[in-house]
Structure formats: structure tokens, C-alpha cells
Amino acid sequence: MNYFSSQFKLGILGGGQLGKMMLYNTRKFDIYTKVIDSSADAPSRLACDEFIQGDILDYETVLNFGRQVDVLTFEIENVNVDALETLEQEGIKVYPSSKTLRTIQNKATQKLFYTDNGIPTAPFFRFAYTSEIKEAINHGGLNLPFVWKSARFGYDGNGVKVIRQISDLEQLPNVECIAEELIPFKNELAVIVARNADGEIKTYPTVEMEFHPEANQVEYVLCPARLPDAITKKAEDLALQVATAFKHVGLLAVEMFLTKDDNVLVNEVAPRPHNSGHYSIEGSYTSQFEQQLRAILNLPLGNTDNKVAGVMVNLVGAENHTGNVHYKNIETIMAMDGVTPHIYGKKQTRPFRKMGHVTIVDKDINKAREIAGKVKQTIEVISK
Amino acid sequence: MNYFSSQFKLGILGGGQLGKMMLYNTRKFDIYTKVIDSSADAPSRLACDEFIQGDILDYETVLNFGRQVDVLTFEIENVNVDALETLEQEGIKVYPSSKTLRTIQNKATQKLFYTDNGIPTAPFFRFAYTSEIKEAINHGGLNLPFVWKSARFGYDGNGVKVIRQISDLEQLPNVECIAEELIPFKNELAVIVARNADGEIKTYPTVEMEFHPEANQVEYVLCPARLPDAITKKAEDLALQVATAFKHVGLLAVEMFLTKDDNVLVNEVAPRPHNSGHYSIEGSYTSQFEQQLRAILNLPLGNTDNKVAGVMVNLVGAENHTGNVHYKNIETIMAMDGVTPHIYGKKQTRPFRKMGHVTIVDKDINKAREIAGKVKQTIEVISK
């Protein structure tokens, strides 16, 4: 198929930030794009050729949309996967595949996939309802503490909870879930893998998440990770194994735990550009967004090496601030070497809302981390 | 002024490729943009917040457009400068200024500006009409050979001609022009200067143009230039001198000749992002497009150093090909390390039409140049 022709159309389900950043690269390659999102003000609206407002969880809507394009992708997992499957049967290229997405959408089937494929992951039990957990504990089949995760559409902060005593289970929704062994990890790592339909496969270097010592929130994403080669190699090999097992086409962000005894376990995956790869816009030879296009259009993959080291800081709304957003001291951080803010364009801030990110690059990762610390101390996302 | 607020509006005259590449960066900073262009299909249309179709050479049109924005800029020199002057008087921030643009728009006044400010440039004579030149030669006031340049809106290829004998003057339009001494230069250089309203000023490294030995067309733009530091320093200092003399705000691309005896002479300038700076998207810490925004919005300027060396190759339509464009072997060049095509999205090719560019980056400039040679031999812009 000739992607660089005026007949070719790429469809994207979801019109959020990730889609928007991918769309900049479609312009570079002059690829015609159609985007669908439920919000009329979706960030992608201004970056695509055609925008359609519609519900990407609705079977008929996704089916009708998909029939109008040559290659269909998504920038968010929460889409109607049955429609994707029908479209595949009709001959539309859907990348990543409906099969992969279906496995990933449910954390229980995702975990089973790892164990079925000999991929190391934290031991877990599967439950049809949260209410069944108490019984399992009482019968001695499950030991405290553990991590409760809702199986479907669980996102950090509301779909995951550490259970240290039975009473912690109260207030949790009574849904399909897993109980995972609490791994005393010393580091959280991620590796982005790109694979195209021809099977060409490459990993980005291992990135390291640095957590806020108290808030237990990722504060910095660093690439390359400040870890021995033996460990980063182990993480990259494992990520390759996961992507290959999925016969994945597109990007796969593999999040991993580094245990205290230097084992690497897969935590979960995202079949799309990922927060842990934002550094690549400024840091890598090929950004994750360009790479996603190359992969799903079955073009040769680009070089995944770093040009320079990169550190990414998320910009989240400050506590006690709700209202019209103001980026306090943004001019100050822009005067620092190698600092690029990415403002997502949300007009309203609220505590911990993700409003953008800042990338800091430097030849030396330690220097980049030092500047990143200053960035974090300086900029504030407040209301005004 | 708070540029990161929802009230702020940036206006851009012209909706071409340069504007489009600048607009990607307005998204990153969430800056609201209005674009005006005479073509309904202008490339910027899909990248701005508001698009208006209108004639940017028309006084009233530019005036009305400019009154709706806070900062007004242009991505092409050929705009109504009287309207810009009126807008400045009304308090609209116009960057670069109408005064600078007026001086630059006319090659005769541009050359006078250099001589008035002690800036080395090739000696020249000024004529109200081309027809006056013959007389000057006959009276011995002008010697052959020389370079004829139309004073207004002359672009390479149609506004410039080397005159070796009087008959070469035939066919030329009878317009205001200059006759410039033919400089036997050994190299053509360019330096992009960025200056913001506060007067912060930075240069990008000197780039070197490598010409096709026969066609006398720029084939490669290389950054850094493969020249001794003493020469690149001289070029950068001269570019700073020019931008400072203009009290320029925004980017100024300064094109220069390196003479056989290692003198550097200013050829001409462009008050905007420039072909010679395209390498910066992949090669520099701060791309010229982001830098233009920083400069005209009076933000701190970004680091102009290279992350890696960059070579830029223009993609022009092959001879004997007119019609629907096809980028033959684009997949082959995309498999080469550090190669990024930028396709401008023109649907029709014709001989020598500028259809895009390709950037090649590598830690080593000589390696990048070697890959660039392969790119040039491989990709073909043909009709199909």
C-alpha cells in the first residue's frame, strides 16, 4: 500500500494528547488522517484532516468509522474491541490488533497471558467479584498484604489499591479483579518496543521512574536508566519477549518492576505511545510518535537510540488550585538549557490533573536530572 | 503579557510550509493562532486555531486581520508592509518590525543598509530600470561580468541572473534592480540569529551550503560547517552585527559568501525561519521554529547548539515529471539511520518544484554527509 498517496487514510480512535502528538508526525509524512472522539473539543481536532464526534465505545460508531479508513489505530485502550474484530474480518488493517487489545483491556487475562507465555510477573489470584476476596483470605488461600486491581479499565489511583488489612477492602467496587502479590521493588522500569507488520522489532532504551519519596507518584522519567547494563539488558530482552508473544504491531510500552534481588517482572503494558516515552521527542533519534506511525504503516523502524539523555517531568495541577490555569514561572524554566515545556491546552486546572510535561535534555543524564529538579521546584500549575 | 493564557492570540501572515512548521510549536505551548492566506488549501489551515482566506498584500485585509491579534508575524516577506506600520502605530506588536521588512523587501535598500552600517557586502550599483544598465556599461561605469538582481520580490531563479555579455540583459524585466560585483566565492554560508524584544540574542552555528558542481543549485546544507573555527566565528559575528543593526526581533537568516581569500560578505537576509535552518528540527536543542516563537513572544531563547550533526537535502521534483506526485524509494531512505523525510503535502509535482526536505543526523558530520549522499541517490520525486 502506498501510504504517501492522496488516497490513503489513517483512522485514529480517540482525540487526546497522545493522538495529537502522533498527528504532528502524520503532517510530516503528509498522511491523511481521520479522528473520532466523543468530545467536540478534543485536542486532536485541530491537527487532523477530518474530525468526527462520536462514541468510541459504541460498536456501530466504531464500525462505520473504521470502514472509511485503510489503517485504523487507537490512542486509548478504552474503545469498542468487538468492532475492531469485525473490521479486521472485513479486511481493514487494525494495529495494534483487536486480539492484543482484548487481552490487555482486562488485567486478569493480561496476567494470564504472561504466565501462559512464560513471562515473569508478580503472582496473582483472579476473582469474579471483590466480595470473593474476603472469603479467600479467611480460608487461608490469600495472604495479606496484596495489591487489589480492578480487571477492567483500572487506572492508577482508582483501579489499584494496596490491601494491608481486611477493612481496606471496604469501599472498593464489587467488580472483576485480581489480587497480586505486593512486590517490594526497588525501581520501576519501562521499555517501549516497536514492531511493524513485517516483524521488524526494536526497543527503546530502558527508562527509570523516580518516585517522590512520600507521595509515591512518579516524579521523573529518566532515559537512559542509571542502572547497570546487565539489568537494562534484562529489561529490554523481557520487553522484546512480551511484544513478540503478542505478535504486536505498533508500540508496546512495557512497565516492569526491578525487585530487590534484581529480577525483572512485567507489571503491565500499554499498546500505544506512553508517558514513559515522552522524553523521546527531544531525546531520541526517532520520537515514539513517529515510530508508532512507522510501525503501524509497516515502514522501516527508525533509530531508537538517544541523541542526548532525557528526563521527563509531568506537569500536574497544584493542590488547592481549581480554575483557570496559570503556569507560574514558565518563563524561568524556559531560560534553563535544554528545557522544553509541552502544555496540553486544558483551560482548567484541578489538583493533580495532568496538564502537560516538561522535557529536559543534556549530554549527561546526571546534569539533565539536576536541571529537572530545578524545573520541578520552579514551575507551578496554579489557578488565577 | 501572558502568552500562555486563553486570551492571547498570535497572528501569522501566510499559511505556507514555514508557517505550518511554526504552528506545530504553538501547539506545544498552547498558543492560540490565527492564520491568513490567499489560498483556501494553505498548508497551515489544518494546524491553526482560526484560518482566514484573504490577500496578505492588501492593506485593508492585513489591517483588519492584525487588529484581531496581540502579536503579528509573517512567514513570507511578500506582505503589505504599510498595514504593518499602521498596526504598529496602533500598538499591535509586529515582529519582525515593518521597518526591517521594508528595508529587506527591496534588495537595493537592503544593500544600502549594509553599506550604511559598515557591514561587508559585495559592491553594487543601483538602477531604477534594467534599461539604464546598458548605458552604464557603455559609459564605462560598470564592468562585465556582474550579477543582475531585481530589487523587488526577486527569488532565486527568476530574480537573479549572471550577466557576462550585454546580450544577457535581453529578456530581463525592465524593473528597479541592482548590478552586483560577481564574487568568486568558494563557499556559501548561512547563520540564523534569534533576538527577542528584550534584546537577548543568540546565533545558531554556521551552516555550509554544498552546491551541485554542474547545476549550481544547493544540494546539501550542513551543520556544523566543515570549516575552521576562525571562519565560522567570523560568520557568526557578522550575522550578530547584522541582526543588531536591524534591532531585529525574531529570526534573521543571514546568507553569506566566503570569498577565496577567506573574507565573509553578507549576501542577503530573510526575516523568518529559513531553509538553511531546517536541520535544526532534528539536529538542535531548539528548532528554529520553536526559537522563532520564543523570540517574537519575548520568551527566553533556547539553546542553539547541535545535539548531533545535521545535513539537509531538499526534495525537488525530478525533470520530465509533471503530475500526481510519487516519492519513489521513500521506504528505502527511511530504513537508513537518522533519516527523517518531511513531505510538504503538495499533490502535484513538476520539475524542480520544492516538495519537501530530508534531514539526516548523526554524531559525526562526515557520516551524516555520507548518508545524505545515499539519500539523494535513492529517493526520486516523480509523477505516476
TrEMBL record, chains A, B:
Pathway: Purine metabolism; IMP biosynthesis via de novo pathway; 5-amino-1-(5-phospho-D-ribosyl)imidazole-4-carboxylate from 5-amino-1-(5-phospho-D-ribosyl)imidazole (N5-CAIR route): step 1/2. Its EC number is 6.3.4.18. It catalyses: 5-amino-1-(5-phospho-beta-D-ribosyl)imidazole + hydrogencarbonate + ATP = 5-carboxyamino-1-(5-phospho-D-ribosyl)imidazole + ADP + phosphate + 2 H(+). Pfam families: ATP-grasp, PurK_C, RS_preATP-grasp-like. Residues 111-297 form the ATP-grasp domain. The keyword Nucleotide-binding applies. It comes from the Bacteria. InterPro entries: ATP-grasp (IPR011761), ATP-grasp_carboxylate-amine (IPR003135), ATP_grasp_subdomain_1 (IPR013815), PreATP-grasp_dom_sf (IPR016185), PurK (IPR005875), PurK_C (IPR040686), PurT/PurK_preATP-grasp (IPR054350), Rudment_hybrid_motif (IPR011054). Homodimer. Belongs to the PurK/PurT family. Catalyzes the ATP-dependent conversion of 5-aminoimidazole ribonucleotide (AIR) and HCO(3)- to N5-carboxyaminoimidazole ribonucleotide (N5-CAIR). This is N5-carboxyaminoimidazole ribonucleotide synthase.
